[in-house]
Each structure stands twice: as structure tokens, then as C-alpha cells.
Design brief:
Length: 166
């Protein structure tokens, strides 16, 4: 596509409270149950409600259907969904403005809050997914592609990531 939706984040992750908020969103999206805990799963609606406020600073503001596609990790999602994902990643400084890959260290830091014993494996997965995205020119497509790659590789590697309930 030659015309690309411009997504402008409302906040940068300059405040520790925003870091905590993002960690909470990650926990909701990825779950944090360990092998010894009962797996707790949230509904799509519950997760959408938690994420919706983060869309306020995105242009265009995402519709509910875009948020649903994002939290369900729909591979062939609409372009608006992919741009919403990019907007969130910029807000939380996991993907810097103008960059076409995840910030490896910041992503490791966030994942470490959920999976503290898997830093080396997480780093390998992030590097691999960033490498697969090299050469991409559409920031929304790149952000989405890396996210899909991460979730797929994490599941394949045995990370405990519960499915959302409908």
C-alpha cells in the first residue's frame, strides 16, 4: 500500500506507572500462570475493555473490531488492526518511532516481568522475529508480523500463553 495510516501515540513510556500499566496489559494478553498455578483465562471482551483506552491516542482511533483482531492475534488482520498494534508498541517504546523492529532490550524487560526465567530464550525469539521482518517498509505490517512471529514462537517454545475465551 502506498497510503499508510498515521498512528500518533498520546503518551510515551516516560512514566513508571505507564510501564506498570503495560506490564498489566501484557499479563492480560499473555497470561502469567506458572505450571503450579491454575490457568486463568480472560474473555476477549475483558481484554478489549482493558486495551481500549490505549487507542485514544491513535489516529485513526481503532474500532472495536480492530482491537478484537489484535488481541486474538489474527494473522490476516485488517490494516487498521496492524496500525493499532504499531501505535501501542510506540506508546510503550517497544518499537521506536521510525524503526522497523522491536527494541530488543525493552521487549526483554517487559517479557521478563512475565517470564523471568526465560531471558535467553526470549532474546533468541525476539532476534529471530526481528530478523524475519528485515526489509519491511510498512511500519504497521512490520509491527504486526513481528508480533505474530513472537506469539507463534513463544507458544512453540512452551511459554504458557492461555487462549482467550470468546
Amino acid at each position: 500500500k502506498t497510503s499508510e495510516s498515521k498512528m500518533i501515540p498520546s503518551n510515551r513510556l516516560t512514566n513508571p506507572l505507564l510501564a506498570v500499566a503495560y506490564a498489566l496489559v501484557l499479563l492480560l494478553l499473555l497470561g502469567s500462570a506458572t505450571a503450579d498455578e491454575e490457568e486463568v483465562s480472560m474473555t476477549v471482551d475483558e481484554v478489549v475493555e482493558m486495551i481500549e483506552p490505549f487507542g485514544e491516542g491513535c489516529t485513526p482511533k481503532p474500532e472495536r473490531e480492530h482491537i478484537v483482531e489484535m488481541v486474538k492475534y489474527v494473522e490476516d488482520a485488517k490494516h487498521e488492526t496492524k496500525c493499532f498494534r504499531h501505535c501501542l508498541l510506540e506508546q510503550f517504546e517497544l518499537m521506536a518511532e521510525g524503526e522497523m523492529q522491536y527494541n530488543e532490550d525493552k521487549t526483554i524487560e517487559m517479557l521478563g516481568m512475565i517470564f523471568p526465567d526465560r531471558e535467553d530464550e526470549s532474546r533468541r525469539i525476539i532476534k529471530s522475529c526481528n530478523d524475519q521482518a528485515k526489509g519491511g517498509t510498512d511500519k504497521c505490517e512490520v509491527a504486526h508480523g513481528i508480533s505474530i512471529c513472537l506469539i507463534r514462537e513463544m507458544r512453540t517454545s512452551g511459554y504458557k500463553i492461555p487462549e482467550l475465551k470468546d
